[in-house]
Structure formats: structure tokens, C-alpha cells
């Protein structure tokens, strides 16, 4: 059994991390990656001999939910699992509506990712336990997604926002310092302030919360 997989994500570091997880299993075969939905659709025109796509949600040009809807119309044989850091109700609801076959979080380990892929290809719906609970809640009360839209009142300075935008692109402290013509110490201080204001402990949480609150 050779399961042909594509990965769609605008972060090459995360693409490589997922590829590494797939490499543990002989029945999974990585075919190609795409940086956004538009890039994926171009590649599918010339090669849609795929079994499954692991799809990010937040991407420039064409996001994962819009892309899922198009892929499902054009290539209904391809299964799609959303693989994202976001587990808010609105994203889950919209992804399922668009035709996603599963919804997993990027922190998932290799074994569970493999199980989720097999489950999806066998007609199931791969979901993290927390996502499954949220999905049940949504089915019982679709109006609850409105509550997710309430944004927290977080105020970042213009410079902090710039640093956070660079951070979200996967740049390290030295690269951010060079791009913004700052010292690495200053960048470090800005990032400390950002973490404090957002009440987070790492880069992934910071980017996730900033996007959720439309700060970047």
C-alpha cells in the first residue's frame, strides 16, 4: 500500500517537520508540497494522482478552507485533513462545511498522524480528542461559533507588531534584528514584552493568539 500525500503550508520549517513524521512509515509516500492554496491548485492541474492532502488553514493568497472547497469540487477522490495550530470553533465549523475529511493539530505525534491518515482513507474522520469534543458541541449548538469572534483587547506597539510578523514567518532573533536594523538584545526584549502582553510562553502560541485576535 502506497499512500500518496501532499502538504500545503506557508512555513517551510513546518513542512519539513511533517515530512519527517511521514518518513517513519513505509506505506506513506510524500509527493510534493505547496506554499498556499493557489500554488497547490496549479500543481494539482498537472498531477492530481494523490490520496490525501495535509492542509494548513492560515495561508496567504488562498487559505486552507477556501482551497479545500475548490479541491473537493475538482478532485473529489482526494481526502483532506486540516493540519493546523488553530482549534477555534469557527475554523472547525468552516473546514467541515468546506468538505474537510479530518482536523488535526500540528503538535500531533508521528504515530497518531499515521493512524489519522489511515482512518481518514478508510472512511473515518481523523480528529484530535479536543477537536472531536468541539465538533460535537458545534453540532449541538452551531450558534456557539459567534462567541469565538469576541476578540481580546491586546495592544501591541507598531515595533512589537513588526517583530511578531517576522517571527510568524519563521525568522530567528538574528534575522529579525538584521531586517529591522535592531540589536538582537532589543529584539529579545520586544519578544519578551509580546509574550507578556499575549500571555503566552512560546513562538507558536504567540503567532496563534496574534492571528486569532487579528494583530498580524
Descriptive report:
- It contains eleven helices and five strands; from the N terminus they run E-H-E-H-E-H-E-H-E-H-H-H-H-H-H-H.
- Helix 1 crosses helix 5 (110-121) and helix 8 packs across helix 11 (203-212).
- The N and C termini lie far apart (42 Å).
- The mean pLDDT is 90.
- Strands 2-1-3-4-5 form a five-stranded parallel β-sheet, sandwiched between helices.
- The chain has helices spanning 12-22, 37-46, 64-74, 89-98, 110-121, 129-140, 145-148, 158-168, 173-180, 184-198, 203-212; strands at 3-8, 28-34, 52-55, 79-84, 102-105.
Topology:
Layout: E1 3-8, H1 12-22, E2 28-34, H2 37-46, E3 52-55, H3 64-74, E4 79-84, H4 89-98, E5 102-105, H5 110-121, H6 129-140, H7 145-148, H8 158-168, H9 173-180, H10 184-198, H11 203-212
- Compute the separation of the termini in Å: 42 Å
Shape: globular
The strand line-up of the biggest sheet is 2-1-3-4-5
Structural class: alpha/beta
Q: Secondary-structure element order, as H and E?
A: EHEHEHEHEHHHHHHH
What is the β-strand count? 5
How is the biggest beta sheet arranged?
A: 5 strands, parallel
What is the subunit arrangement here? single chain
Summed up, the helix count is: 11
Instruction: Name the helicity range.
Output: 40-55%
> What fraction strand?
5-15%
Low-confidence runs: none
Question: Average pLDDT across residues?
Answer: 90
Radius of gyration in whole Å, from Cα? 18 Å
Amino acid at each position: 500500500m502506497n499512500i500518496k500525500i501532499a502538504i500545503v503550508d506557508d512555513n517551510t520549517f513546518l513542512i519539513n517537520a511533517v515530512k519527517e513524521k511521514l518518513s517513519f512509515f513505509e506505506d506513506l509516500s510524500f509527493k510534493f508540497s505547496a506554499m498556499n492554496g493557489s500554488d497547490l491548485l496549479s500543481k494539482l492541474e498537472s498531477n492530481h494522482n494523490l490520496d490525501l492532502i495535509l492542509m494548513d488553514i492560515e495561508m496567504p493568497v488562498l487559505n486552507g478552507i477556501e482551497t479545500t472547497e475548490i479541491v473537493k469540487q475538482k478532485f473529489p477522490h482526494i481526502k483532506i485533513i486540516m493540519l493546523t495550530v488553530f482549534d477555534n470553533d469557527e475554523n472547525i465549523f468552516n473546514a467541515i462545511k468546506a468538505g474537510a475529511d479530518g482536523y488535526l493539530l500540528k503538535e500531533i505525534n508521528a504515530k497518531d498522524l499515521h493512524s489519522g491518515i489511515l482512518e481518514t482513507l478508510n472512511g473515518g474522520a481523523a480528529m484530535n480528542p479536543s477537536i472531536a469534543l468541539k465538533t460535537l458541541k458545534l453540532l449541538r449548538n452551531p450558534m456557539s461559533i459567534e462567541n469565538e469572534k469576541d476578540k481580546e483587547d491586546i495592544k501591541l506597539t507598531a515595533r512589537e507588531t513588526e517583530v511578531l510578523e517576522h517571527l510568524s514567518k519563521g525568522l530567528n532573533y538574528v534575522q529579525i534584528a538584521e531586517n529591522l536594523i535592531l540589536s538582537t538584545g532589543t529584539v529579545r526584549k520586544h519578544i519578551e514584552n509580546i509574550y507578556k502582553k499575549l500571555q503566552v510562553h512560546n513562538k507558536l502560541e504567540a503567532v496563534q493568539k496574534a492571528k486569532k485576535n487579528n494583530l498580524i
